[in-house]
Amino acid sequence: MLGVGDFYYELGVQIIEVCLALKHRNGGLITLEELHQQVLKGRGKFAQDVSQDDLIRAIKKLKALGTGFSIIPVGGTYLIQSVPAELNMDHTVVLQLAEKSGYVTVSDIKATLKWETERARQVLEHLLKEGLAWLDLQAPGEAHYWLPALFTDLYSQEITADEAREALP
Amino acid sequence: MAMSFEWPWQYRFPPFFTLQPNMDTRQKQLAAWCSLVLSFCRLHKQSSMTVMEAQESPLFNNVKLQRKLPVESIQIVLEELRKKGNLEWLDKNKSSFLIMWRRPEEWGKLIYQWVSRSGQNNSVFTLYELTCGEDTEDEGNNAIFPTPTLMSSESSLQSLFDFQSFSSKFLSCMECRWFLFCFVFLPEHYLAVAYGGSGD
Lengths: 169, 200
Fold this sequence. Notes:
The complex is a heterodimer.
Chain A (H helix, E strand, L loop, with lengths): L4 H22 L2 E3 H12 L8 H13 L5 E5 L2 E5 L7 H10 L4 E2 L1 H8 L3 H13 L4 E3 L7 E3 L14 H7 L2
Antiparallel strand pairs in A: 1-3, 2-3, 4-6, 5-6
Helix pairs in contact in A: 1-2, 1-3, 1-7, 5-6
Chain B lengths: L22 H21 L4 E3 H6 L4 E2 L4 E2 L2 H14 L2 E3 L6 E4 L4 H14 L9 H6 L23 H17 L4 H8 L2 H7 L7
Antiparallel strand pairs in B: 1-5, 2-3, 4-5
Helix pairs in contact in B: 1-3, 4-6, 6-8
């Protein structure tokens, strides 16, 4: 099942470390871009180069091992979920909607997906509950739900010493 | 006052200024706020503040982002800091507070370590030696103990009260009993220590 030598195995371990270290920031959801940047940083100058395809392959293997990873396609790229939060189709589709600007509102959902208010609210409540979204009550108009995983300012922020400690077994 | 302060990523994240309904997320948020308040005050060498100042300060009011932490939430952050031992209220109405980016016990330990290292246990030190003495320069960008502020006479009663509260925690760090000794004979320095760290 693992096959293909040590490369993907080691990469899998690195991916897990990055996700563990950043979990408290983003709730266990990370874009493929950010994961890629953090993995490259961790590998240093002399390590073999790693592509996003390599990451996807490694994650698929992790999935096969039943580690709770999943890959969510959004707007041309992927969100990698490392914490087994219960995300169904409704949640995934809202994540895809949020990918454009990093946040989503009930009105956005109703306008784009044509859902009832209650269905939209339930999904957003779930994202809050899973720690994947934060509530913003000072946005113009209505409440905005922001996803740290999609917050571009957070990209490539150095992993702090405390966070690195989280990654150790 | 506009020093190059490194704001954490949360400061540019709009929801950071809304008290989070999810308890786990709220815990992370409050921890980040506490940390931010302490580093902000440390960098600006600010050891006391009023709640009104706090509301308008860039610390809780990110003008560029058009977000500010509401006063009820500020109170919650301040209460967290108080519970952790980094904050003391200066009045019953909770309108102004003392911020201790190092808790008195931590100062006590640091001073004790510095004294032990320089092999001068059981000596009497003046405050000047502790803050500006040559030996203290190796201790990093802060002097071993921040430069004291001279208190005005009208606030001396209040500062006496505060110093007692400060010192009782300070002295609970046993190694520092010696420290109080020098203050018996230097009352003007006695009052200054309570507010160590604000301005020059």
